[in-house]
Amino acid sequence: MNTLRFFARRTAFYLFTAWAAITINFFLPRMMKGDPIQAYLARNRGDVSPEATRSLEILFGLDSSKSLLQQYADYWGLIFSGNLGRSLSHGLAPVTEVIGTALPWTIGLVGVATILSFTIGTLVGSLIGWHRGSRADVLVPISTFFGTVPYFWMGLIAIAVFASNLGWFPASHAYGKGAAPNLSLAFVGDVLQHGILPALTIVVASLGGWILGMRNMMVTILDEDYVTVAQAKGLSSRRVLLRYAARNAVLPQIQSFALALGFIVGGTLVMELVFSYPGIGKLLLDATGAKDYPLMQGVFLIITLTVLVANILADVAYAVLDPRTRQTEA
């Protein structure tokens, strides 16, 4: 009964959050200054007839003859039908297609880098916490220092050292110039080679937070009575570390990891600009500059839903690993 009540409360919370986010997603671009239709005409065709202008307004859901409430209702209808509109800045291509071309690059690069950073940071933090007071503690300030360095500066240094001077990795883009995306081994290898340097900078920049968080939680957990009892029973250090200490210390990390996974879709904008990587972050920046309402709304919608799904999965994992969560919230 407590479990059902817990999941019912969380479901209601996330449904409300989704409604609020989508509502803000609709109204926020319309509060921005400027006319996206006129900006589009100025970039592409110049002066056109009022009838053509009105047709574009209707096409992009900006029909001035309808109230904002009517446009809002139409927007929900488009969402449920899977139609996110057409992009003003990409030749009237469907928004889903435009996002679909950038999304795999962001998920592939930032996703892999985030998972690696979380895994390495959690494992290293667990060992440092278990051997607290040892020489391994020096890794905490070192990794934290790299986390405080501005990302664009770290990226530029990485390019200067590993791309320009040593020539180990390409300096920019997701694959070589002139190459056409395909599933051949040569192209996959080219993509991996271009992705190593930006992925490495993401891992180095975010590793300190995972190490510090896990290390501090381990130090706290090791003072708990159940850990002391487990050690008094004569259990092996490995079993106490994995089954008693690390299992409980990792719980707060899980929610942070879920948020990090959710923001993978948002991409790392600075990384994409520094390395000229064709991801979602750069796509959103270009759409904002072009006042491309449909594309902006589409990207915001994907980011919002991804964050919500990641949080739902984190709640489920947290409730499974720690039954006290279900009992408290129920």
Automatic annotation (TrEMBL):
Q: Note the superkingdom of the native organism.
A: Bacteria
Annotated membrane topology is: Multi-pass membrane protein
Entry keyword set? Membrane, Transmembrane, Transmembrane helix, Transport
The keyword Signal belongs to this UniProt entry's keyword annotation: no
Principal localisation: membrane
Give the UniProt record's GO annotations in the biological process aspect: transmembrane transport
In terms of Pfam families, this protein maps to:
BPD_transp_1
Where does the ABC transmembrane type-1 domain start and stop, copy by copy? 103-314
Q: Name one GO cellular component term.
A: plasma membrane
The record's subcellular locations are:
Cell membrane; Membrane
Task: Please name the InterPro entries in this protein's record.
Answer: MetI-like (IPR000515), MetI-like_sf (IPR035906)
Residue intervals passing through the bilayer: 12-28, 105-130, 151-171, 191-212, 257-278, 298-321
Question: Which family, according to UniProt?
Answer: Belongs to the binding-protein-dependent transport system permease family.
Which PANTHER family does the record associate with it?
A: OLIGOPEPTIDE TRANSPORT SYSTEM PERMEASE PROTEIN
From the Swiss-Prot or TrEMBL record, give the protein name: ABC transporter permease
Q: Which organism is it from?
A: Xylanimonas protaetiae
